[in-house]
């Protein structure tokens, strides 16, 4: 699940880096993921920047010389142009190049060459569960579980993705199960007697594609019935892992690749952006997909620039910032680490 590709297409080196990252345990923000923007936004504003919510970017603006000079965002029913000397896109390589750039920039040979080097990652399916009962009552653990139905990971993945959509839920190859509430030391104080689970697996975009033009929450009974087959199959695995949650579910919601497409603008419902199999990690591709683009003043950041997942996206941000500042920020981070360690040892 880490790289989001077939085992045969996963890079051993990349997987080793990810496993090493988890060996001493993962981190979870106190108060939940919302604490990340809550603390980052004041820093941005203190530096003279600003953050807009519910203002999707419609397109990247270019000046007469073909340089990126701003973005057009939708605010209510209006479009507002925001001008800036540097444009950084975390929308992913496909959204940035195919949706946000005007046709003349999209047609640049360098950009077309980059697009030919990458493919879309696999779509994702999520289940969110709200429970009555504390972590102790329900036996929930602050642990990430990867549950597989067998040892032939390659075979079960291929069989699943080759399934017709009516049979796919019977062949789910893995589920990732975690309890955000159990990881958060502030949860019980904020929401006493309540708990949550989040479950993730893969799902082909094509299984749900016929409803892509339907309005969210109004996709019809056939869509909801198909979604329910996945939710039911996934929950049977979760009940085996946490049997005490049966009869304690207060909220249950499934999200398909179309859900991801709607809420996080992933073109084909993918979690990890561009596919990060071995072809993506070849020398030529790594050398081509840099933070700076063929459009002057436009930069890429996030997981498509580096690796999939949260840590991969952070690495993409460091690479992008280093490119713009013309300074190796990894050196700064190493110095900061030593400084913090020295400060900690004095306490």
From TrEMBL:
One of its GO terms (cellular component) is endoplasmic reticulum membrane. It is a peripheral membrane protein. Its EC number is 1.3.99.23. It catalyses: all-trans-13,14-dihydroretinol + A = all-trans-retinol + AH2. The keyword NADP applies. InterPro entries: FAD/NAD-bd_sf (IPR036188), Retinol_saturase (IPR052206). It is found in: Endoplasmic reticulum membrane. One of its GO terms (molecular function) is all-trans-retinol 13,14-reductase activity. SUPFAM superfamilies: FAD/NAD(P)-binding domain. Its cofactor is FAD; NADP(+); NAD(+). Keywords: Endoplasmic reticulum, FAD, Flavoprotein, Lipid metabolism, Membrane, NAD, NADP, Oxidoreductase, Signal. Its main location: endoplasmic reticulum. It is an enzyme of class 1 (oxidoreductase). The keyword NADP applies. Belongs to the carotenoid/retinoid oxidoreductase family. CrtISO subfamily. PANTHER family: ALL-TRANS-RETINOL 13,14-REDUCTASE, BLR7054 PROTEIN. This is All-trans-retinol 13,14-reductase. It comes from Chloropsis hardwickii. The gene is Retsat_0.
């Amino acid at each position: 699940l880490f790289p989001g590709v077939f085992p045969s297409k996963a890079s051993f080196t990349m997987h080793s880096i990810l496993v090493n990252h988890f060996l001493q345990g993962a981190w979870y923000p106190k108060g939940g993921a919302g604490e990340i923007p809550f603390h980052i936004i004041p820093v941005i504003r203190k530096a003279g920047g600003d953050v807009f919510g519910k203002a999707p970017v419609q397109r990247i603006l270019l000046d007469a010389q073909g340089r990126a000079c701003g973005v057009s965002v939708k605010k209510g029913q209006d479009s507002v142009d925001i001008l800036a000397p540097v444009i950084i896109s975390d929308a992913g390589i496909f959204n940035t190049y195919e949706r946000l750039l005007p046709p003349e920039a999209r047609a640049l040979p360098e950009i077309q060459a980059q697009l030919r080097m990458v493919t879309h990652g696999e779509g994702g399916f999520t289940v969110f569960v709200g429970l009555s009962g504390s972590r102790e009552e329900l036996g929930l653990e602050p642990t990430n579980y990867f549950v597989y139905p067998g040892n032939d990971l390659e075979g079960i993945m291929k069989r699943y993705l080759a399934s017709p959509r009516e049979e796919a839920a019977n062949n789910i190859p893995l589920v990732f199960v975690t309890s955000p509430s159990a990881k958060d030391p502030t949860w019980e104080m904020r929401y006493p007697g309540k708990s949550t689970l989040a479950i993730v697996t893969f799902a082909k975009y094509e299984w749900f594609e016929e409803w892509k033009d339907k309005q969210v929450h109004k996709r019809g009974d056939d869509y909801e019935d198909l979604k329910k087959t996945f939710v039911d199959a996934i929950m049977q695995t979760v009940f085996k892992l946490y049997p005490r949650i049966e009869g304690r579910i207060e909220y249950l919601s499934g999200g398909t690749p179309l859900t991801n497409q709607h809420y996080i603008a992933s073109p084909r419902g993918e979690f990890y952006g561009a596919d990060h199999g071995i072809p993506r990690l070849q020398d030529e591709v790594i050398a081509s997909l840099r933070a700076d683009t063929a459009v002057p003043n436009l930069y890429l950041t996030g997981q498509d620039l580096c690796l999939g997942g949260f840590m991969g996206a952070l690495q993409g941000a460091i690479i992008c910032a280093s490119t713009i500042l013309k300074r190796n920020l990894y050196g700064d981070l190493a110095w900061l680490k030593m400084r913090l360690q020295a400060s900690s040892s004095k306490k």
